[in-house]
Design goal:
Elements: H1 19-29, H2 39-53, H3 63-76, H4 94-107, H5 112-132, H6 142-168, H7 173-176, H8 179-195, H9 197-202, E1 204-207, E2 213-217, H10 218-250, H11 254-258, H12 263-284, E3 289-293, H13 294-300, H14 302-311, E4 320-324
Antiparallel strand pairs: 1-2, 3-4
Helix pairs in contact: 1-12, 2-3, 4-5, 4-12, 5-6, 5-8, 6-8, 8-10, 10-12, 13-14
Amino acid sequence: MAAFPRFDIDKPLWDQSTFSGRLMNFFWVTDPRTCIVSEETLDAAKQLVEQYRLGKEPPGTTREQIVYAKKLYESAFHPDTGDKQNVFGRMSFQVPGGMAITGAMLQFYRTAPAVVFWQWVNQSFNALVNYTNRNAKSPTTTTQLGVAYVSATASAMITALGCKSFWQKRASTLLQRYVPFAAVAAANCVNIPLMRQNELIYGIDVYDENENKITQSRVAAVKGISQVVLSRIVMCAPGMTILPVVMEKLERYPFMQKIQPLHAPFQVMAVGCFLIFMVPVACSLFPQRCSLKTTTLEWLEPEMYQKLKETCAGRDVPTYVYFNKGL
């Protein structure tokens, strides 16, 4: 057996009640290098994590091996189901995927076909990420997924084309560069709630501090989804708001005008520099294990609060309930 002190492998290594602790955790979990780890290594990591939970890890296993297995497991497997996630939908793929798509949106914003194409690519990517990181205990039908995808893509295109048409003759070239950000922000407000609509309709499971399920709550779903929407907008905001100003300045110089084919690769790399920091920062804004006061349930969802009281018969009703907000 391992000679090091045992720890709870299902809990983060850093204090999640503080922003700095969550930031350290998400820098660790969203490490883009985990995207290129082989399937065999990921499966072995999951097996080692499961063995460690039972205290049956192979003799001589080191703490470093356990911690690395935990990192791979949390970056590649869904926290609710334990199923392996599609690599393109993992939060660890946000940096390489987001930098390529966002850089292209910022570069190719001048023509309507380019705007439509890159907004479609972006919303397809977002839909995959939202589905992959949903609260898996609230299943969504194929029809609902299709409606969410079409609605989010349409909202992004309408916003982008509307802003482009409105600003083309009324705004400076700098303001026109913000069309992609306006479209992405609008689409996030549509895509995520629709992709997770079952949570809003039926509620999500909420637990006491000992992880015992005690009821369901639609209010908890609203809180969790709202935080995810805000986090996603914050995630892309710096790259999509600062980089247009930088490019507007740089493109005035003769040397930049001579290397126009390199503008797109430059923007892709620049977006990557923003995202490598902003993905963990945005994920850290709110605790993953979100809380809700039971008095709020009593006020807004009396039927769910009554179910909670029945579940807690014989003991005090907890002050807070907890749930996974998703990412």
